[in-house]
Write a structure and sequence with these properties.
heterodimer; A: alpha+beta; Phenylalanyl-tRNA Synthetase, Chain B, domain 1; Phenylalanyl-tRNA Synthetase, Chain B, domain 3; 7-stranded mixed beta sheet; 5-stranded mixed beta sheet; B: alpha+beta; BirA Bifunctional Protein, domain 2; two-stranded antiparallel sheet; 9 strands; binds zinc ion
Chain lengths: 700, 350
């Protein structure tokens, strides 16, 4: 919002306040930062940032009050500026009348008549000052209202009095179906929640927002009705937002105008109009009252002032002087001050607000600085955050980079092929849409992190990366929540994607191996290891269209709780995401991880030597490693310490549809050296029992 | 006198050893010739002892022993020397060009937002703060109403909200700040309380170099007996010094947030010019970094904490902005593109 230093000087001696730099410093301290200063020959234009709680500072008089208070200087005498102009002829009351039908929403409505004006421009000083604050000079009448607005902060409107049917004004709710063409030439359909100013026949102004075109002043206007009123902030805001209108008037009314400024603003505007365009002011101000405001009184205790500031040096003498400078009335009562709050400070309601007013003048830089005494029992972390941090650390250590992706998607374009996964995680069938999306083509909240992550991988590959490994920790959103528990719509997720080559080194550039399913599964195993040992994870083939059939799996705990999925992204999904190379990806449900403390006990180490034995068998492909190892465990071989898959082979020498698996078995006794023959006989027993399974054979 | 066999042996040994040995084979041959158990010249000398008359045996034996000691000692030294030479030659074969790059295990890295978030968390954990968390999908009650934003209040304009299209008693939305977690934590635990809330927040902002609909904040909240603006000043000064380095000064300027009273904008010494004034700080020497204030008594009353008994302060800052300032990258969009070339730059920071 722009202010003219020259205009401010009407109210406060800006030279004495330190000129433009001094004013800037004072306003900074007041909490009204000056964004920029434009110096002109006779003036300086200040661009001030005014927070929505300070409509009182949205006019030169109000801003000058802040400068004066911060500088500790008196305001200039300005009563004459707002004095009633000398009138002649019939009184305003004889010429027109006002009816307020909504006294809570229009608490005051003032009007003045200037009759017999000529279509002339405003005076030079009015036009110059309006130009300085960025308001375009239009005509003597319109400029008079704008000048009064920028002077007092009170918006006004000028009607062509002769175009008001019945010569009267009614403040009422709009009727459904009523229409009004506003000053900008747009026809507005009104609703009963809107407040209008109407004449005897029709709405002539959208209250507090914009006047009607038909009754606006023109060069031909001779008789002008000037209007200034107080409108209910919430009502103005609702209507302005619905109609997409934001005007200088609505900006101030939404934030709360100064009801006491109405007569002065009308007097000033009438005098300016008279000076520029001649004519005569009708005697008397028509001042219709709605529901009256009560003057609020609040006590400021010395104890509260010192408690909140933490400064024992501040006293009530200082507080009282500061409040008076800011326009409050005060009365000392022992260790407290009884304060009357002026109506232009609607933002000040309670004692703590008064504390702020005093401290603004005192200066925050003068307050002491210390650390709060510690009374807390020490810090705790929200438990899932710790899980997320450990997952991230493990993923970074495994060679993946963390990303942050936007959660805005289109359910069909982005998540269609993940539908089975969404169903398993209860994020289907319906997506959760935004009512006002940034981009209408991405109006749903993501139900899985994977499509966004795959898009990020594709961007890297398009930019020339030969391989990429990414992960994200974030939230997905499902429609199956309870509306009174917003958190129930959320699911905390970890997702990763691996594509292309792993990075190379000068010493082994040829030995790169493309990522495969076991890299993806390995990532999941390593990540979950702090809470679930890899041997306690259960992997089952997944049927999700976005994963390649036979190369994607769901992973669960031994108890059957779903933890996530991982696998080779299918050709169809890769095509959607623009991925030319194979990509492995997975997602973990962070909240499903059994993250409670896991008891851990040291196991004694044997110093006895181990004996290993390898066993190769050919078996049908559909005998899984999980089944095979369960079978081995079930044989209870004596002194079997561990076993693992040493090799898998299919190809020449192995019958079609079959695979050769080599198992390495390690035997060890805790207390003695095992005899080779004992081990041999256990291995023979295992082989014999395995041979009984259908399709299993030994040897080549 | 016939030549003395001991002198002759020593002479021949000294001659050979004077020529030196260059291979292990030569060494073994030398050692075998003189000290070999079967046909070695030294054992032969002792065998001759028996053939001597008893009267000469004592003197001959003593001299033979001295010669044996000399030869053994010399052979040992020669062996050790050979050993050293062999080791040195083995080492020479292991030599490499040490200026070639190392074979580092492949590693990834944390996102700069995470790096900054954890720095901030560490600072507050050391000051005894807990870390809390709350939902990103919130309702109007927690995000606005309980924080003293009345319905239809222009203060809501500053936080253009993404609304969730789902009927609910209190309208659902994506939280516009981490402050709703204040309400949740105070309702859950009451006072006293000392916590921070890092998290992701959302606003309906078009994407450009300085705006993003998704960004990150850290909220702080302390509620206790006798908490004052002075405590807030000290806490923020200590925090910003820990985050941006010694000598970082802070300044409070009054401002308005509905949920604090008084409310302040916190500026700190410009990190680009250290306060001298530069284009980044518009010549002021200060840059705005966070918002803060004393918890509004209405907010406390709303969560059943008596504002006469307890007072508190709250603060909030943008993690993305801190990352932008700290690392000096020009465009917020880099944070959300997932470009490994960008992300890899922070791998050493975690
Ligand atoms: Zn600077």
């Amino acid at each position: 919002m722009k202010f003219s230093l020259d205009w401010l000087d009407d109210f406060v001696d800006v030279e004495a306040a330190g000129g433009v730099d001094g004013v800037r410093r004072l306003l900074d301290r007041a909490g009204i930062p000056i964004e920029s200063v434009e110096r002109r020959a006779e003036d300086a234009i200040l661009e001030a940032e005014i927070t929505p709680n300070r409509p009182d500072a949205m006019g030169h008089r109000g801003l000058a009050r802040e400068i004066a208070a911060m500088a500790g200087r008196p305001m200039r005498e300005f009563a004459a500026r707002y004095a009633e102009p000398e009138g002649s002829g019939d009184t305003t009351e004889q010429l027109t009348s006002i009816v307020i039908q909504v006294p809570h929403l229009c608490r005051r409505f003032g009007a003045r008549l200037v009759l017999g004006t000529e279509g002339r421009p405003a005076t030079e000083i009015v036009r110059r000052r309006l130009a300085a604050v960025g308001a375009k000079p239009i005509s003597a009448a319109v400029d008079a209202t704008n000048y009064a607005l920028w002077d007092t902060g009170q918006p006004l409107h000028a009607f062509d009095f002769d175009r008001l049917a019945g010569g009267l004004l009614i403040v009422r709710r709009a009727r459904r179906g009523e229409r009004l063409v506003t000053l900008d030439g747009v026809e507005r359909a009104l609703e009963s929640s809107d407040i209008v100013v109407a004449d005897a026949e029709r709405p002539v102004s959208l209250a507090g927002i914009m006047g009607g075109l038909d009754t606006a002043v023109t060069d031909a206007t001779r008789n002008v009705l000037l209007e200034a009123a107080w409108w209910d902030p919430a009502t103005v805001r609702r209507t302005a937002r619905r109609l997409g209108l934001h005007t200088d008037a609505s900006h101030r009314f939404e934030r709360g105008a100064d009801i006491d400024a109405i007569p002065g603003a009308l007097n000033l505007a009438a005098r300016l109009l008279l000076e520029a365009a001649g004519g005569a002011v009708a005697p008397g101000l028509l001042d219709a009252q709605g529901k009256l405001f009560r003057i609020r009184r609040t006590a400021l205790r010395l104890s509260r002032l010192r408690l909140l500031s933490g400064d024992e040096r501040i006293g009530l003498d200082f507080a009282e002087e500061a409040l008076v400078r800011l326009g409050f009335s005060t009365e000392r009562k022992g260790r407290r001050i009884s304060v009357s709050i002026p109506l232009f400070r609607a933002d000040v309601r309670r004692e703590d607000d008064l504390v702020e007013e005093v401290l603004r003048v005192w200066g925050y830089d003068r307050l002491p600085s210390r650390l709060p005494a510690s009374a807390s029992a020490g810090s705790v972390q929200e438990p899932l955050r710790e899980v997320e941090d450990r997952l991230s650390d493990a993923a970074a250590a495994a060679g993946l980079f963390e990303t942050v992706n936007y959660p805005f998607v289109d359910r069909t374009a982005d998540e269609e092929l993940w539908a089975d996964w969404l169903r398993l995680t209860e994020s289907a069938p319906e997506p959760l849409p935004l009512a006002n999306p940034l981009d209408a083509s991405r109006r749903h909240l993501r139900a899985t992190l994977l499509p966004g992550l795959l898009d990020a991988a594709a961007r890297n590959l398009r930019r020339g990366a030969s391989g990429v490994g990414l992960f994200e920790v974030g939230r997905s959103f499902g429609a199956a929540g309870q509306s009174d528990h917003p958190e129930s719509y959320e699911s905390r997720r970890f997702a990763f994607a691996l594509a292309g080559e792993r990075r190379s080194h000068w010493s082994f550039p040829e030995k790169l191996r493309p990522a495969d399913f076991f890299d993806a599964r390995g990532v999941v195993e390593r990540l979950l290891e702090p809470w679930v040992a890899p041997k306690d994870l259960r992997w089952k083939p997944a049927r999700v269209a976005a994963l390649t059939e036979g190369a994607g799996a769901l992973v669960r705990t031994a108890a059957g709780e779903l933890l996530g999925l991982a696998g080779l992204v299918s050709g169809a999904e890769r095509e959607r995401r623009g991925l030319a190379v194979p990509v492995f990806a997975g997602e973990i449900l962070v909240g499903a991880i059994p993250s409670g403390a896991k008891p851990f006990h040291f196991r004694e180490l044997s110093t006895m030597p181990a004996i290993t034995a390898d066993l190769s068998l050919t078996h049908p492909m559909d005998l899984t490693w999980e089944e095979l190892s369960a079978f081995v465990v079930g044989r209870n071989l004596a002194h079997l310490e561990s076993f693992h898959c040493l090799d898998r082979y299919e190809g020449p020498g192995v019958e079609g549809g079959k695979i050769k698996t080599t198992i390495r078995l390690t035997f060890r006794a805790v207390d003695r050296t095992l005899e080779q023959e004992k081990v041999n006989s256990e291995v023979r027993r295992l082989a014999a029992e395995l041979s009984a399974l259908p399709g299993v054979a030994f040897g080549a | 006198m016939a030549s003395d066999p001991i002198q002759a042996l020593l002479g021949s040994f000294r001659e050979e050893i004077g020529r030196g040995v260059s291979t292990r084979g030569e060494f073994e041959r030398l050692k075998g010739r003189f000290l070999g158990r079967e046909k070695g010249l030294v054992p032969e000398l002792f065998a001759r002892l028996k053939t001597l008359p008893p009267g000469e045996r004592g003197a001959f034996g003593a001299r033979a022993n001295a010669a044996k000691t000399e030869i053994e000692e010399a052979v040992r030294r020669l062996g050790a020397e050979l050993e050293r030479r062999e080791a040195a030659s083995r080492d020479r074969a292991a030599a490499v060009d040490v200026t070639l790059p190392g074979r580092r295990p492949r590693r990834g890295g944390l996102h700069p937002i995470t790096v900054v978030r954890r720095r901030i968390e560490d600072i507050f954990l050391r000051m005894g703060y807990s870390i809390a968390d709350g939902p990103e999908l919130e309702n109007d009650f927690h995000n606005f109403e309980a924080l003293n934003f009345p319905p239809e209040h222009p203060a809501r304009d500053a936080q253009d909200t993404l609304l969730v299209d789902r009927p609910a008693a209190s309208p659902l939305l994506l939280r516009t700040h981490t402050s709703p977690v204040q309400i949740r934590e105070m309702r859950k635990h009451g006072a006293p309380l000392r916590l921070i809330v890092p998290g992701r927040v959302y606003r309906k902002d078009e994407v450009d170099a300085t705006h993003s609909p998704v960004f990150h904040q850290v909220e702080g909240l302390v509620v206790d007996h006798g908490i004052s603006m002075a405590d807030l000043k000290g806490t923020i000064a200590a925090f910003l010094e820990a985050l941006f380095g010694k000598g970082t000064k802070t300044r409070f300027i009054p401002t308005f947030f509905p949920f604090v009273e008084p409310g302040v904008d916190v500026s700190m010494t410009c990190i680009f010019c250290r306060g001298d004034g530069c284009p980044k700080c518009k010549g002021s020497g200060w840059i705005e970094i966070m918002g803060a204030g004393m918890v509004h008594p209405r907010v406390l009353q709303g969560v059943a904490i008596d504002p006469e008994e307890y007072t508190g302060f709250a603060f909030g800052l943008g993690i993305d902005r801190v990352a932008l300032l700290k690392y000096g990258f020009p465009d917020l969009r880099l944070l959300f593109e997932g470009d490994e070339r960008f992300l890899a730059q922070f791998a050493g920071e975690a």
